[in-house]
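Customer escalation, tier 2.

The customer says the design service returned an amino acid string that "doesn't look like it belongs to this structure." They asked us to rerun it and document both sides in this ticket. The original structure tokens are below, unchanged.
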């Protein structure tokens, strides 16, 4: 029996039917997707098909009554309000799919991508989601209460008696005021802030600190000689309840802990925030409020975050001896005594890998490699200034550092060199540099290892010339590069087991940095060591490393410099 062709007739408009009007363009509510009986794909309708037909209009998609439409579709689509016009019309005689129907990712690919994205999101949320059940006493047991301020001194104790000065890997919290920041004059500050600014040698605030405007905000900024965490302490004077004060301090301590992880330091020195006049009516209760806020801050972290922090040293430093017992009474679970960073043997430690600690694995990690540097009172050839002969001459297992001048290597004329280099070349009887040295030492800071038969090994390094350098950061970077190349050269050989360092860029090469060279050398050695790969660090940590000081009067200065950086003995 012959089948009647289906005729598509739009329904009459209903009262209250929805439509969206923009200018002269009409769009039905279903323009982004057809009804259940349509084959719409969710695309905008074509411009020419956007207007609905009139009530008396019959739509046959180009086919006469009684004809079978060509193409893939064999039956009409009932037109309802909400159907996307234009997209659901029949294909023409070619019977091919339009290009629009071929767009998009294959369904299997979309499913796999969605599942992968969901898995990543779930993993991150699980790791960062604070876990319940954290006990305040257990959390605070990871905090050590110290009987000195963040700079290592007690109230009334002279500076020369400081046995607990912050080391290279110590981050110090600085309570900062908006008034002092607005004047950009750290020297005008008093109390703990003023002492820290003077210790760090600050003459002005970094631009990022000057942009701090919110009470309770914390920001880590690496200074030239210190790791500082600036904190705009909350004003508790205008607060009416303990809960409000605890909440404000909890937010601040949480920010401090977050900023500490950015420093890659191994020790954090806290102090009671919002003390003094900032405490207002809570001054007598500040010890209890402090530990309640700190415990709440620790409890708000995820397990992974806490595992990272608890692998470091967290010290609460009490400057006033009269306040120590009060704070001790409010935190009986806190550890006491010297921090491990101050009491441990002086060693240079490799900093943790610069990977976000929030995404670090929670499983125990091997301890970082350590480099122990011993400051000795003789030069790399084993003799001291004023001695007639070498008491500790280098043997075949020793590699000594030659602070060479680049022009002498470029001209291949070691006989014209003086100072430490001249003495080394004279001991070797060197009349020209080996080809390996001239080929690899072409820029300041470059280094090359060479074993001289029957003598000892030498690491020739082109000493950076600091005479024309005015910027402290640039000078420090040049020294660090030179030390790193020396360490790499030593780690890449299998002959020597002892490395004798000396101050690179000393004497005429030091320029305006001669007085600060001991401290800069300690920082350079530490930064160079932490930048090495694990294999190189292991070689150095398993070797004997000495910093050889030829002039006896300079030995105490270098010992103090390396000890203050937690890197020598």
């Amino acid at each position: 029996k012959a089948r009647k062709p289906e005729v598509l007739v739009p329904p009459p408009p209903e009262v209250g039917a929805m439509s969206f009007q923009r200018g002269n363009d009409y769009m039905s509510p279903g323009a982004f997707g057809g009804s259940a009986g349509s084959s719409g794909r969710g695309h905008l309708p074509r411009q020419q098909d956007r207007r609905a037909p009139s009530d008396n209009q019959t739509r046959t998609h180009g086919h006469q009554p009684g004809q079978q439409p060509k193409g893939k579709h064999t039956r009409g689509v009932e037109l309802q309000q909400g159907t996307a016009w234009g997209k659901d019309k029949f294909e023409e005689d070619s019977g091919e799919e339009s290009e629009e129907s071929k767009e998009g990712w294959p369904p299997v690919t979309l499913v796999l991508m969605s599942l992968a994205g969901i898995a990543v999101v779930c993993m991150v949320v699980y790791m960062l989601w604070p876990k319940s059940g954290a006990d305040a006493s257990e959390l605070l047991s990871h905090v050590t209460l110290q009987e000195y301020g963040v700079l290592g001194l007690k109230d009334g104790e002279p500076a020369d008696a400081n046995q607990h000065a912050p080391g290279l890997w110590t981050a110090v919290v600085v309570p900062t005021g908006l008034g002092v920041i607005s004047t950009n004059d750290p020297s005008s500050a008093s109390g703990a802030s003023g002492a820290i600014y003077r210790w760090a040698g600050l003459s002005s605030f970094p631009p990022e600190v000057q942009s701090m405007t919110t009470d309770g905000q914390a920001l880590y900024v690496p200074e030239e000689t210190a790791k500082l965490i600036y904190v705009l302490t909350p004003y508790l004077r205008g607060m009416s309840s303990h809960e409000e004060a605890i909440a404000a301090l909890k937010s601040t301590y949480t920010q401090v802990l977050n900023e500490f992880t950015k420093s890659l330091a191994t020790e954090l020195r806290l102090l009671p925030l919002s003390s003094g006049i900032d405490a207002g009516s809570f001054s007598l209760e500040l010890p209890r409020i402090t530990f309640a806020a700190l415990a709440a801050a620790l409890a708000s972290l995820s397990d992974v975050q806490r595992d990272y922090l608890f692998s470091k040293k967290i010290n609460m430093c009490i400057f006033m001896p009269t306040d120590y017992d009060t704070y001790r009474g409010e935190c009986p679970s806190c550890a006491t005594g010297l921090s491990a960073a101050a009491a441990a043997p002086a060693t240079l430690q490799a900093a943790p890998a610069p990977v976000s600690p929030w995404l670090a694995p929670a499983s125990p990690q091997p301890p970082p490699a350590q480099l122990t540097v011993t400051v000795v009172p003789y030069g790399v050839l084993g003799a001291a200034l004023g001695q007639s002969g070498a008491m500790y001459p280098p043997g075949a297992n020793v590699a000594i550092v030659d602070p060479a001048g680049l022009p002498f290597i470029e001209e291949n004329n070691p006989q014209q060199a003086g100072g430490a280099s001249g003495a080394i070349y004279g001991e070797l009887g060197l009349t020209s540099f080996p080809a390996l040295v001239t080929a690899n030492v072409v820029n300041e800071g470059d280094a090359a290892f060479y074993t001289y038969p029957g003598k000892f090994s030498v690491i020739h390094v082109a000493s950076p010339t600091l005479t024309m350098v005015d910027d402290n950061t640039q000078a420090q970077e040049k020294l660090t590069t030179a030390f790193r190349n020396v360490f790499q050269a030593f780690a890449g050989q299998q002959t020597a087991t002892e490395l004798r360092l000396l101050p690179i860029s000393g004497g005429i090469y030091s320029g305006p940095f001669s007085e600060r060279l001991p401290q800069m050398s300690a920082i350079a050695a530490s930064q160079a060591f932490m930048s090495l790969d694990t294999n190189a660090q292991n070689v150095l940590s398993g070797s004997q490393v000495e910093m050889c000081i030829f002039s006896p009067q300079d030995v105490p200065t270098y010992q103090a410099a390396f000890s203050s950086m937690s890197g020598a003995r």
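Tier 2 assessment: The sequence is consistent with the input. The CA atoms of residues 73 and 90 lie 6 Å apart. DSSP finds 17 helices and 17 strands in the chain. Sent an explanation to the customer and offered a walkthrough call.
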